[in-house]
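User: Before I run my own analysis I want an independent prediction to cross-check against. Here's the chain; please return only the structure tokens and, at the end, one sentence I can use as a sanity check.
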Amino acid sequence: MKEKEEKEKINASLKFTIIAVILIAIFCIAITPVTLQNDTYYTIKVGEHIAQSGIDGQDPFSWHEDLAYTYPHWGYDLITYFINQAFGLTGIYITTCILSVILGLSIYFVNTKLVKNQLFSFFITIGVMYVIRDYVAARAQLVTFILFILTIYFIEKFIETKQKRYAVGLILIPLAIANLHVAVFPFYFVLYLPYIAEYLIVLLGEIILYRKVEEFLLKIKIKQYEKKVGQEEKVELLKKKQQELEGRIDKIKIKRTKELQNPYKIKFTKNPNVKWLILVMVICLLTGLVTPLGTTPYTYLVKTMQGNTTQNINEHLPMTLATDTDAMCMLVLFLSILIFTKSKIRLVDLFMIGGLCFLMIDSRRQITMFTIVGSVIFNRLIMELIEIYVGHKEKEIIEKGCNVIGIAVITLVTVGLSYYLGKDKWDDQYIDESTYPVQASDFILENINLETARFYNEYNYGSYLLFRGIPVFIDSRADLYAPEFSGKEEDIFSDFINTSGIGTFYGDTFEKYNITHVITYKNSKMNMIITKTEASKYKELYQDDYFVIYERI
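Assistant: Structure tokens:
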């Protein structure tokens, strides 16, 4: 009878898993955009250059001379180029869909493996993918999202079992990151810190320092008196004090052990396998050398933080919680569970979620890591909440959610939400002509001599211009144009920011860089000023519904 029930549970679990995989795949494809982002265009072109010329450390796409380039995601660029060569932009879109599905399934299976439930893991996965939907794009970060959630799984399983296969996985991940997306290489090691911090705190908590010092001083005194003649009585008295002290220390240890077993809010765990995790982390630090980029994995982030590019790119700016509903809702959920319920949180989870929250507020793009990694912690809290307040009915609730009616409701809701999120993109094109100068590029290639022309263009569509083979003033590889990376004294990026914000008169920038041609949005401030006040200094060569091209007279 028990065997029959066990088989039925396994079959039900397998059925739910199959349905969950299908629904997650549908949802992930629904949120994957058809229209490509600006970074994708330079990614293809950089991959083409690497395939033809290798990694030469120089930028071949800007008309600025001798700009040093670090090729920070050369591996991803190369793969994207080959996909584009074989299947075109359709291949890139399909690949992005596949990576989106892999990310969704990775989040789901990591949650089911670490928290041991399917139903809530499914809901949480859908929630995570919904929150990070704006970051699902044909960019290297989509691959690193997958690698980071797998990192959490490998760390948790390694300190639980100490099996070598998980250590191998942990070593291979930074090796991949160092060649696919070097900018996030240091972040990989941030994920280790909460585990190490918890281990050290618990270790220090076991050491009753002031008692140890007292015990150490007693031992010194005993040795001193033992060397003296006629001090046997004094020695015995000191030894008696030593025994009493050891007894008090043992009582304190017992009391602390009981407190750790039943803490008020924060659960401490001393896992001896963390010592081996530290060794694995040290080995992983060396993987940054296994790349054709030299020491770039160790220096890239430092140089980026020294410059001002992160202060002027939207996704790097600090988050304003009042305007970010998703982040606000997540924080409210976490705080509500921790403050108003009897749920307890592991110290490592508290460190992890606290650190990621700080990073998210400091840089809004880190909402992705807060959401992805935080999904496991939130799942854990939800399961503990159910266990505390529902108790023996926990399995019954999950089983009801996994029965035929429950699955039917889940399917209808997920498919309906997928349709709602995906319907607006059905008519989208891979290239948005209102954002990227498609027709203007055709005109430039047919009518302007690119060997002598020096175009001034804007940041958001520079990548498309170089994708079409037009040398650019700037594009979305912001680091390339900062002096920390370019090897130039000129701060091209700052000059662009000041010019586009009218902090510097654009005519002065044009003179400084000997600009011959200007391409700009038709509704831009620059075009308005040129049209209204300086038309005599510029010859209009081309205009369409979105862009205009001028030649400087």
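Sanity check: The CA atoms of residues 162 and 276 lie 8 Å apart.
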